[in-house]
């Protein structure tokens, strides 16, 4: 299953020419991860951090910028889980307008225990089950 959400490109995402400034693509990806936890995984992202004391810091990131996005574009974001390891998972977030892919981010995030100094911790059964619902189909 894929997690899908829509986001509009706003003025604050853009450079003076009205084109999305590339670091804003990463901000949008982070918003999609937050939305995925809230709507797809079923846990408020703030509560995950503040009360449950878990987080998903970035370990590795690769981004392909395929086509520009402009102010006013309505993009569809798709997030899939490619791999669930012991303490990390690989996810891919793709942004598209219609059939045209604008950018794709491949991320490795670490399942972190935030009780004290943040450290990687095994992805427990319940969380593994929730994340597994979004595993990419082979």
TrEMBL record:
Name of the featured protein: Benzoyl-CoA thioesterase
Biological classification of the source: Bacteria, Pseudomonadati, Pseudomonadota, Betaproteobacteria, Rhodocyclales
